[in-house]
Write a structure and sequence with these properties.
Blueprint: H1 2-20, E1 29-31, E2 40-46, H2 53-63, E3 69-72, H3 74-79, H4 81-89, E4 93-96, H5 109-124, H6 144-151, E5 155-157, E6 161-162, H7 167-170, H8 173-183, E7 189-192, H9 200-215, E8 219-220, H10 223-227
Parallel strand pairs: 1-5, 2-3, 2-7, 2-8, 3-4, 6-7
The protein binds zinc ion.
Residues 46-47, 97, 101, 137 line the site of zinc ion.
Length: 232
């Protein structure tokens, strides 16, 4: 009995360790950065759309002729169809961030599949015909979710630079912009939440992030461009 418990514990520990390493996600492919030999980065915006913040963010991107990748929540697309359509029409990439932003760990495959499929349908309903990659809510990537993703031959996209995760940075737009611009490396996928109503600091920092990254010589590209991925 004791030996069985030890084996189980070791197996569980091993799985946890494996799950931390991006290249060996249990099933399916996951990427958290692109090739590091070219000065390109991808800005990714999680959650939303929400209004009026989506309109504000799109205006800032348009002002600087910059592209981004928006990982949208299906439910929020249904609530804000016009803002969602505006993202697609502006030529940005749209990713699937689940339908309800539920935690995906220990969910039945049917639940996970519905979350993905409903969101795909909502995105396609906007007239968007680009690639749709997936980013898990809360970054969960174990068990059922990767299995479903693998069965759908879908790419999971994480990030290599967390922009606005830190509470102090959220309150200080200049420090936030400096953090992102100074930490960025070639191939980075940068995570920001500019459509959260609770993150005015991220919106305030966005123009300086765009100019700062370009001043450092980075080209801003979509996730698919960065990863060299053909349409899904
Ligand atoms: Zn999220």
């Amino acid at each position: 009995m004791f030996i069985a418990i030890c084996i189980l514990a070791a197996a569980f520990y091993g799985l946890r360790e494996l799950a931390r390493v991006e290249s060996v996600q249990l099933f399916g492919e996951m990427r958290s950065h692109g090739p590091q030999d070219r000065p390109r980065v991808a800005l990714t915006f999680d959650d939303g759309p929400s209004q009026p913040h989506t309109t504000e963010v799109l205006a800032m991107l348009a002002e600087q002729d910059a592209v981004a990748t928006f990982f949208l929540i299906g439910e929020a697309i249904a609530k804000h169809p016009e803002a969602s359509r505006a993202i697609a029409e502006a030529g940005h990439e749209i990713g699937n961030h689940s339908y309800t932003h539920a935690r995906m760990v220990f969910r039945a495959p049917g639940f996970v599949r519905r979350e993905l499929d409903q969101t795909d349908a909502a995105i396609r309903g906007l007239g968007y015909d680009g690639p749709i990659h997936f980013r898990a809510p809360y970054g969960n990537k174990l068990f059922v979710l990767p299995w479903v993703l693998a069965r759908q031959n879908r790419l999971s996209v994480m990030w290599s630079l967390e922009g606005d995760g830190d509470l102090a940075l959220q309150k200080d737009p200049a420090a936030l912009a400096k953090h992102v611009v100074s930490q960025a490396r070639a191939g980075d996928i940068i995570l920001l939440h500019p459509m959260y109503s609770t993150r005015p600091g991220t919106r305030a920092a966005l123009p300086a992030i765009l100019t700062g990254l370009r001043d450092r010589g980075f080209e801003l590209v979509t996730v698919s461009e960065l990863l060299g991925k053909a349409p899904h």
